[in-house]
Amino acid sequence: MRKLVAVSVVTSLFACSDQKEERYATWAEANRAGAVERGWLPPFVPKNARDLHDTHDLDTNEQKLTFTVPPEAVRPMLDSIAPRSVLEGKLAAKALDEAGWKASEAQDVVATLLCTRSYSGTVVANRRTGRTVYLRPSEWAMERCPRPL
What we know:
The chain is of the alpha+beta class.
């Protein structure tokens, strides 16, 4: 009987999880599903983004969003974020690590800290492949942000 109660408690804890995971083939599909309206796709994510995978925690507001854009869209995407700070050295290495990338992948990668009033986060993007990871929050690097205007 104790085992049954323990299994029921564990099952109910997992069933009530505030961890959400969504996958979308395209930005348009994510938009139709309401992900843009709910704020799970930040405004800088281009409409030509594909292979979107979003995991977020409703309690902590932590989020990891991965997607791919055409390589030529990486720079305009990053330029659309203002203010922002490009991360270098140890902070860039930390951003790559949190994004799940190896240091050996750093050659074609740019790590950027978002410094907006409404949210903080890091964007790690591969300029050659367009693979992008957005993580929030990123308070560990906020001292690098320029002061909001």
